[in-house]
TrEMBL record:
CDD domains hit by this protein: HNHc
Biased composition (Low complexity): 426-439
Identification of the protein by name: DUF222 domain-containing protein
Listed SMART domains: HNHc (SM00507)
Region (Disordered): 418-456
TM spans (from-to): none
UniProt domain HNH nuclease: residue ranges: 343-395
Any matching Pfam family: DUF222
Coiled-coil region: none
InterPro entries documented for this protein: DUF222, HNH_nuc
Species of the source: Agromyces archimandritae
Amino acid sequence: MTMTLERPAVGPSQVRIHPLSPVAVAHDSLGELVDAAVAARRSEAMLQAARYVLVHIGVQYALRHADAFTPASLPPARRLEMARRSVIAEFATALRMSERTMAALAEEAGALCTRLPHTLHALQLGEIDTAHVRVIVGATVDLPDGDPLIGKLDDALAERARETNPASLRRTARRLREELRAESFAERHAKALAERRVELEPCGDGMAWLHLYLEASEAALAHDRLNQIAAAVSRDPGPEERTPEQLRADVARDLLIEAVPPEGSPHRGAASSVRPTVHVTVPVLTLIGGSDSPALIDGCGPIAAETARELAARAPSFTRLLTHPVSGAVLDVDRTVYRPPADLSKWLRVRDETCRFPGCNRRASGCELDHTEGFAAGGKTSFDNLGHLCSKHHHVKHESTWQVRHREGGIFDWISPTGRRHRTLPPGATAAPAGAPPGLMAEREFRSLPPDEPPW
């Protein structure tokens, strides 16, 4: 679809409107608003181009002066890697972005400034925006430096982007690549197949997306099977209130959680011996029905109080962890051995939920426990000296000039190489839940619980 900014002239077969009529005034007023929006979009694109250039300059500066951002004891290649990680973290925390988003922006900036001059120029003029840029970068990202196809795509797609939307540009990019590139579809498919994966995307209202990146034929087969099973369920006698979309989702859930791979599958043995396990943190008053405060699913966020009570009562795949209804306090211990015991590790996972570096959302279950003050330097293996860091940020802490202070209550204060300060707070509740009577004592709350093993 081609888009232009000019207003169409009135043709001889069209109704002519008097220039002072209310309809003409309305058309002109709306036209001025649209023109202003286009101008704002052009200004925004120019500023985005400037940001790309500044980020690229910043990354290159950090790489040229890696000795200022990393310890001198690191090997040269490691110093470059850690300098890049450090500057990405610096930009991400300053711009309030996730590091994944910032790293992608830095890659786009590098591509624009070193491989895609026509695209960068169009963005600097405000003739395209970042959505167009991402399409063009994506169309060239897997091409090696010096490949003549990069220049051809840059020239053709930058020109096309000036007059079309990103979705149409993406289709054009796919067609041009097929026409211009020498690599076969089979070779590209083999590379793409190696990237297959599953991703969990937490959402609001106690929900989450589960994404699967599969070979197209397998994805189509899986989708068709869901459709057929859902259709068979809907044909069963008796009332069925679920929509087709809800039926497909419920069928997929049951197959993934309960089903075993078929005979001959290389995954059958592993699947039959695995039981999914998830931590659910339930306020005590929610568990006994005295409050409707939501519980938390590790890695996904809040869930409804009723769902939490059902899980705590009967779901074997969920580990129940209770929190104090007034303070939300967890374990406070002081250990003098290096490796934290299982009970302390579990409580730290509950407290942190994610990596404690600013902006990082990697789940604590996939992170490493770090002594904020080094154990060899006298740091204790305690609740107030341990925190979860993903592998990447664990290295950033120890192999760059980032600094961290662990405050009381699980608060982490980070100082970037340029002196910017960032505070991360534990995400767990610290206030009384809705409906909690004033002065309620923990002894009374715990006496009201059904008999069970302590949750720690």
